């Protein structure tokens, strides 16, 4: 699970933690990445401990939840930096391909869908199965109590719906993901490479 703010009282973090509790209640094992001290992409080597932690979690997961505040009509740079550090491929391994994804956002004002729409585009680019449902919490400062728990509301009900749908899609696709992401173009490329290897004109 990724959230996109470093504020002391971060509503994207609070929403992520609320969603984590729901997933755990549904039987999922949940790990939340803390973006504090993650360097900007290309500002540090891939061996940086926070980068390695993020990539290990991405490889470990079967599904992901991305939750960002909307700032200046878009997801935050902190959110985008985390996604940018996750590679499309590491050798023959694709850390995100075929995995499920749920997207959520929080706003300080009226309800908006800019951040979730952007994250949907990124999810498609990362070859993930982004579920149809999503959550957008308006005036998030009104939706959490002093202890950081989300108050009962239609927004909370939607978060439950989204997490339930994420679990369902993950269970439905976990065993068939290799089949779903199998591509002719990649099989053709692999066959051509194999042919070159075994049909060398000279050794």
Q: What would the principal axes of the Cα set say about the shape?
A: globular
Could you name the CATH topology?
A: Rossmann fold
Q: Can you count the beta strands?
A: 6
Name of the CATH class: Alpha Beta
Strand pairing plus helix content: what structural class?
alpha/beta
Query: What does the largest sheet look like?
Result: 6 strands, mixed
> What is the correct CATH architecture?
3-Layer(aba) Sandwich
Radius of gyration of CA atoms, rounded to a whole number:
19 Å
Nearest-integer average pLDDT: 91
Helices and strands, in order, run as EHHEEHEHEEHHH
Low-confidence stretches: none
Measured by DSSP, the beta-strand proportion falls in 5-15%
Tally of separate helices: 7
Number of domains: 1
N-to-C terminal Cα separation, in Å? 50 Å
- Helix share, percent: 40-55%
Could you walk me through the main structural features you see in this protein, from its secondary elements to its overall organization?
The protein is of the alpha/beta class. The chain has a single domain (2-198), classed as Flavodoxin domain (Rossmann fold). Helix content is 43%, strand content 12%. The protein contains seven helices and six strands. Strands 1, 2, 3, 4, 5 and 6 form a six-stranded mixed sheet that branches. The relative contact order is 0.15. The mean pLDDT is 91.
Short description:
The chain is of the alpha/beta class and 203 residues long. It is built from seven helices and six strands.
């Amino acid at each position: 699970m990724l959230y996109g703010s470093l504020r002391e009282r971060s509503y994207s973090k609070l929403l992520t933690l609320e969603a984590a509790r729901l997933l755990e209640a549904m039987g999922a094992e949940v790990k939340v990445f803390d973006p504090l001290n993650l360097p900007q992409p290309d500002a540090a080597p891939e061996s940086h401990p926070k980068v390695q932690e993020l990539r290990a979690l991405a490889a470990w997961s079967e599904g992901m939840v991305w939750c960002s505040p909307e700032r200046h009509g878009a997801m935050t740079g902190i959110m985008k930096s985390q996604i940018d550090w996750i590679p499309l491929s590491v050798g023959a391994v694709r850390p995100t391909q075929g995995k499920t994804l749920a997207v959520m956002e929080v706003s300080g004002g009226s309800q908006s869908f800019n951040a979730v729409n952007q994250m949907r585009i990124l999810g498609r680019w990362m070859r993930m199965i982004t579920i149809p449902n999503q959550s957008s919490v308006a005036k998030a400062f009104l939706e959490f109590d002093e202890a950081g728990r989300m108050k009962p509301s239609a927004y909370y009900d939607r978060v439950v719906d989204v997490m339930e749908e994420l679990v369902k899609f993950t269970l439905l696709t976990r065993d068939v993901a290799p089949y779903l992401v199998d591509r002719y173009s990649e099989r053709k490329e692999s066959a051509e490479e194999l042919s070159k290897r075994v049909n060398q004109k000279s050794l």
